[in-house]
Write a structure and sequence with these properties.
Elements lengths: L1 H6 L21 H19 L8 H14 L5 H8 L3 H13 L3 E5 L7 E5 L1 H22 L10 H4 L25 E6 L2 H8 L1 H8 L3 E6 L1 H12 L8 E5 L3 H6 L7 H7 L8 H6 L1 E2 L2 E2 L2 E5 L2 E6 H6 L8 H11 L7 E4 L6 H13 L8 E3 L2 E3 L15 H14 L11 H9 L3 E7 L4 H4 L10 E4 L11 E2 L2 E5 L6 H14 L2 H9 L8 H4 L2 H4 L4 H10 L3 E2 L9 H16 L5 H18 L4
Parallel strand pairs: 3-4, 3-5, 10-13, 15-17
Antiparallel strand pairs: 1-2, 5-16, 6-7, 8-16, 9-13, 9-14, 11-12
Length: 591
């Protein structure tokens, strides 16, 4: 009963979605460039003797600006924005549509009313235009932009790079989904950014969007409950990476391989470990939307003032935590997940990995452990291993140098604690790092260093991967599947991934997004994670997507909690965990 009560508790402030999300204009140079060109045209017309003609430039600016803001453009609104008579404006609009620069998309089944959107060609054309104008002005008058100067409107550095990702274009045909697109998401900053962009996404898809956000354990319960309906209540569901083995093995998810092969969908830009973790039994069931590794965060300023080096081993971390632990001044050594159930279970699984052993008996391979296709004895729980015992000892060691509310601490609380300056170090997922990476009021802002998990005996450096992929429920009505796949492709495309970051997220599953100058300028964290991904430090074997892993984590989080709470010895707790785990895995026929 306690396990179930814990699972239903929210893990942070992201569970409640605003009924009227406030979409943010893209803060990119692209949006500022549109403002400049519009003002430039006004000054030109006022200063020079010119005929106005169709004033296509004004119409293109209007449709581009509305697209960035998520506002709908109609033929009437575009004609009004042109400043021309309706007849003249109509001929100009028809000419632009005929040239493939503006898409006219039906808003109803009858097709009598339409909306207007910039085509991909127009978006790319304006990006090239920005490059050329910028280069021309720089070469001609030699402007050197300074912070706060008006020249910075057009001379920001990013548009000199070909790596800048253009804003997303609309779908050429609106999605046909009765009742709108229904999305079940996780409650975290990335999905809150997606929700904040709801209006823009509704314009892109041409349908209403209905989002529901759940914290981790509640999200899994909702997915399981939804699978029992004759027809899914959601078109797209968000799955934590370790869940794919459980959900796919029970036929709760739709295999995506037929769509990927039919459309020639390229998945090479995604982090390989995220793609691998969204697969089961050789089939792809999910498309990654965020990769969020758990890192060791430390206050560079505090460690430097104490003359301490950042820790890379478990022994060093304990020593640093002990030196910096000063409860009298309200400063504690380290924050981590110690709350009963799933939070502590995740911590324990990662700590076992520090000492060189996964939670189950996976086969060792070069660079880690093999989990794809794991069966039989490879799924046997390893609570009686030396690594499990050492993990418990380590927990008791760092418990001494933790905040007083450590036994109630989970993902959000540990990040909040670090952001508030209450601890010198914390284990934290990158998905919650906007709390201090993007918060100038946090004492940790621009004072944080990042490291892979510290290693213990027989361990090797690694970064445990977290994150989410989007999936289609297997029980989704057949007439909604194609539209769900189209929406899922767009929600995970690189231009949308970039928009999530520009609207408050700091995570992506795509290499190309991590290389975008406008993205990397927001935080050094983006490139740090990208480098870790390229070095294959991101690993999913500490929490492998195999059947039964979620329940094993829950068992670990409840039995080990008794050790931290002082009510049970390490040996007794591990023995009870092994018995419960063996019984559960055998009852379900996993080995």
């Amino acid at each position: 009963m306690n396990d179930q009560l814990h699972e239903l508790q929210p893990e942070g402030p992201f569970d409640e979605l605003s009924e009227t999300p406030m979409p943010k204009l893209s803060s990119t140079e692209f949006a500022r460039f549109l403002d400049f060109i519009e003002k430039f045209e006004d000054v030109t017309e006022q200063s020079l003797s010119m005929t106005q003609g169709y004033r296509e430039l004004r119409m293109m600016i209007h449709v581009m600006r509305n697209h960035l803001a998520g506002r709908l453009t109609t033929p009437t609104s575009l004609a009004d924005a042109s400043g021309l008579s309706y007849g003249t404006a109509k001929r100009g609009i028809e000419s632009i549509i005929k040239r493939g620069l503006i898409l006219s998309r039906p808003r109803t089944k009858s097709g009598k009313t339409v909306s207007l959107h910039p085509s991909r060609a127009l978006i790319e054309e304006w990006g090239n235009f920005a490059n050329r104008i910028k280069a021309l002005l720089g070469d001609t008058i030699g402007l050197d932009p300074k912070p706060g100067s008006t020249s910075q409107i057009i001379l920001d550095e990013p548009y000199q790079s070909p790596d800048v990702i253009a804003p997303p274009a609309v779908l050429s045909q609106r999605l046909h989904l009765k009742g709108g697109l229904r999305v079940l998401m996780h409650a975290d900053p990335t999905f809150m950014a997606m929700h904040n962009l709801k209006r823009q996404l509704e314009v892109i898809f041409g349908v209403d969007i209905k989002n529901k956000a759940k914290s981790l354990d509640s999200l899994r319960e909702e997915i399981l409950a939804n699978s029992r309906f004759a027809h899914s209540h959601y078109d797209i569901i968000t799955c934590n990476l370790p869940w794919f083995g459980e959900l796919a093995s029970q036929d709760m998810l739709l295999p995506l391989d037929p769509f990927i092969e039919r459309d020639g969908y390229d998945i090479s830009d995604f982090h390989p470990v995220a793609i691998q973790s969204s697969r089961y039994a050789g089939k792809q069931y999910g498309i990654p939307v965020q990769t969020t590794p758990e890192l060791l965060c430390y206050r560079k300023d505090i460690l430097e003032s104490a003359g301490l080096m950042p820790p890379t081993t478990t022994e060093q971390l304990i020593r640093v935590a002990r030196v910096l632990h000063d409860p009298g001044k309200g400063l504690y050594g380290i924050a981590w997940n110690a709350a009963r159930g799933t939070p502590l279970g995740h911590t324990f699984a990662f700590l076992m990995a520090k000492f060189g052993q996964p939670l189950i008996n996976l086969q060792r391979i070069e660079g880690g452990y093999a989990f794809e296709g794991a069966t039989g004895d490879q799924l046997r729980p390893m609570f009686l291993s030396d690594a499990a015992f050492r993990a418990c000892e380590y927990l008791l060691d760092i418990l001494k140098y933790s905040p007083p509310n450590i036994l109630q601490m989970s993902w959000y609380e540990r990040a909040r604690c670090y952001a508030a300056g209450e601890v010198s170090m914390a284990y934290c997922y990158t998905s919650l790092m906007p709390l201090f990476e993007l918060n100038k009021k946090s004492p940790a802002w621009q004072n944080t260093g990042y490291l892979p998990h510290t290693v213990g005996n027989h361990g090797r450096p690694f970064v445990p991967i977290g994150g989410y992929s989007l999936a289609i429920p297997a029980n989704l009505s057949e007439d909604r599947v194609e539209a769900a796949w189209a929406a899922m492709r767009h929600l995970t495309c690189r231009s949308m991934s970039k928009l999530y970051i520009l609207n408050g997220s700091l995570v992506t599953s795509r290499f190309s997004v991590s290389q975008d100058p406008e993205v990397t300028a927001l935080s050094p964290l983006i490139q740090i994670v990208d480098e870790m991904a390229r070095k294959d430090l991101l690993q999913s074997w500490p929490r492998p997507p195999v059947p039964g892993i979620t329940d094993l984590i829950t068992i670990a989080g409840n039995e080990i909690f008794e050790v931290l709470d002082g009510r049970r010895s390490i040996k007794k707790a591990l023995s009870m965990a092994q018995d419960r785990a063996d019984r559960m895995m055998r009852d379900r026929g996993y080995y």
